[in-house]
Amino acid sequence: MTSLLAGICQIRSNIKTKRVSSYDRSGGNADWIEIKAGETAELALIPRAGIIKHIWITLMTPDPMIRRNAVIRMYWDQEQAPSVEAPLGDFFGQGWGEEYNFVSLPLAAAPSAGKALNCYFPMPFGDGARITLENQSEHAIERFYYYVDYEEHLTMPETMGRFHAWWNKELTESHPEEGETEWGIVGPQGSNRSDANNYLLADIAGKGHFVGVNYYVDNPGPMWYGEGDDMWIVDGEPWPGSLHGTGTEDFFNSSWCPNEIYLHPYFGYARIPQHKLGWMGRTHCCRFMMEDPVYFDKSLRASIEHGHDNALTLDICTVSYWYQMEPHKVFPPLPAKESRGNMPEINHTDVHRWRHEWRKALGSGKTLWGHERE
């Protein structure tokens, strides 16, 4: 196995290290740009060939949802459709517009309190690169600080894939006739012999390899959300495909319905529900497949069940990351800002109302405890 530091001592030629940043061109200390409401700022326009090695961003604005309301896009080799398109926070590893610390090898949200966004995914290009930030908020980003650190090369080998990232969101539907019966609690469970109703992680055309996903799930009930299997259909093969998983927590390299913060360079749980009633609330899982990417020659359909047999209603958002040869399949239109918002948080008063309806269904007995069944 090659060490991450194996090449650090090698002296290379015909490479220049460069940076685009928001530094104060006057020599002062106003090292930021302002991005007005509705404005798209061009953060970097890099000519010729090179590799972006690191991106760092922090910002200040009165909009508490700016991480969902600002959209980052990246274009390689003069392309017109972006290869990267995602809300700013979701791309860097923060869901729901929130700020919290996040640690992984390729992405991090660093102190103070997750306000420093970092990306170490290498991003090659052969004929120019362009990065933009669109402020879809009603408020200005009053201060936007950033670095884009890159290498300038004379040429780029044809074997170098281009970096891609795609954001998706779905309020999933409970598909089986029996409803939300995870673990068979309210009725028998069915069998799922297709990926048709799964949550879609990526639908890719071309040759490349899939390298990771940030998975943000908001669960409106206390039941475990993670019985869903991951499914990978490579090059149009029939179901069940080359890779078929055994459960959401298994794909994210954990086990037995975790509900605790845990961060490894390649996987982890960066956010868990604040109010502990089972698994009700917001959880952020991640998996970066640096040692085990999924390779494809023609296409890849990556998906995951939302509960076994897609039994659960969940609010799921993801950012998937991969490399491929261009041209890429153009992404579906990014949902409007209003459609990217969060579902209301379920709280203790909602649960009490559920109990009230359950008590009425059982005759409104005065000592009903909660375990009784019809």
Automatic annotation (TrEMBL):
It comes from the Bacteria. InterPro entries: DUF2961 (IPR021345). This is DUF2961 domain-containing protein. It comes from Paenibacillus spongiae. The lineage of its organism: Bacteria, Bacillati, Bacillota, Bacilli, Bacillales.
